[in-house]
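Input record, target 12 of the design panel.
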């Protein structure tokens, strides 16, 4: 674990930035090496050295490295997006996930239309055995090429598999 490595003789990033002498009991030294000056500067700008020091003092030693990693990530994101921070990143990923789920439903609908499966029996959102068999059979890269003009039966026969009925 990084917090238990022997220290070099130079000051930690926190003491360098704060222009103070680094003591052997410095709470920042195990987690902000002298080479991590930019990381500590971001954490200091967002949270403040005093708050980080108090926080690290309250966290059990075995969890401090993860705490520092979390603070560094939050500070990085907060500086990029001061209003929303990590929540903005999460919301963006959730929006992207919904878009991809929609695209998947559209692709499944098109596949069902081309496969000859009765659309009233199978929903494009269901994981039907017929659809699962087709998706396992067709390479992912080829799914992107199916645009409605492709003869699906011929494609399946080219793979050596009969079309499912």
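The sequence produced for target 12 reads:
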């Amino acid at each position: 674990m990084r917090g238990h490595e022997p220290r070099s003789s130079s000051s930690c990033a926190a003491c360098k930035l704060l222009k103070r002498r680094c003591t052997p009991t410095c709470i920042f030294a195990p987690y902000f090496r002298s080479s991590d000056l930019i990381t500590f500067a971001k954490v200091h700008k967002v949270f403040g050295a005093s708050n980080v020091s108090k926080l690290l003092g309250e966290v059990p030693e075995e969890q401090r490295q993860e705490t520092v990693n979390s603070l560094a990530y939050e500070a990085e994101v907060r500086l990029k997006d001061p209003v929303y921070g990590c929540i903005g990143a999460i919301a963006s990923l959730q929006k992207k996930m919904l878009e991809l789920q929609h695209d998947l439903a559209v692709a499944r609908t098109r596949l069902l239309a081309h496969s000859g499966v009765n659309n009233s029996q199978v929903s494009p959102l269901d994981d039907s055995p017929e659809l699962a068999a087709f998706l396992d059979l067709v390479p992912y890269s080829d799914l992107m090429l199916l645009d409605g003009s492709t003869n699906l039966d011929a494609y399946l026969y080219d793979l050596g598999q009969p079309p499912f009925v």
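The two ends are 58 Å apart (CA to CA).
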